[in-house]
Amino acid sequence: MTEREELAWREWEAAWRSDHPAEPTFEEIRRSVDRQTRSMRLTLGGEVVATLAMLGLAAWVLLEEPGPARLGWGIAAVLHTAVVWGFVLWNQRGIWSPLGESVIDYLAIARTRLERRRRTAAFVIGLVAVEVVALAAWAAASGRAAETGGLARLWSWLPAAVVTGIAIVWAVWQRRADEVQLEVLTVAERTLRPD
């Protein structure tokens, strides 16, 4: 979500929480949905670039130091990428533009996008949990930490631990931010939807 979108949602939230909430207009909803669409396009472009960079890095490492462990990591990287992109393509199906130009259409797409972001946050937490369990099982089964220097070898896990931590913090934050936005959207729907 961009800063502009975040600011718009915060303004709506502040208005909703005040004693005299301002009623969002159709134009405000429309501008918000249009900003979300632009943000989704930029995010998708960034995700494609990041995916290509990470797969390129995995291929380079495998070519530079071939071996069974590196091959295993390469396969894990490709599998991870396939799972993530499968989810992304499935989760973003049908949310790129409203089906029409009415208030109901724009409110529907805003709600659907919000639900899909919440689903993404849950997916990230689930994927991280599965991958942490798999890595812990692999480390325990291989016993490599004990034979290759113990604690010194644990530092090699630091990048994965940082990425895991960031993913979990983002997912929890996103879920909480989406709960607030869901309340604001519900007020907007009550205000703008024809009875």
Mean pLDDT: 78
The unreliable regions are none
| Tally of separate helices | 7
Q: Helical proportion?
A: over 70%
Give a quick account of the main beta sheet: strands, pairing sense, barrel closure.
Answer: none
Structural class: mainly alpha
How are the elements arranged and paired?
Layout: H1 3-17, H2 26-64, H3 68-91, H4 103-142, H5 144-147, H6 151-154, H7 158-192
How does this structure look, described?
The protein is mainly α and 195 residues long. It has one domain (3-192). The chain has helices at 3-17, 26-64, 68-91, 103-142, 144-147, 151-154, 158-192. The model has no long low-confidence stretch (mean pLDDT 78).
Please sum up the structure shown.
It contains 7 helices and no strands.
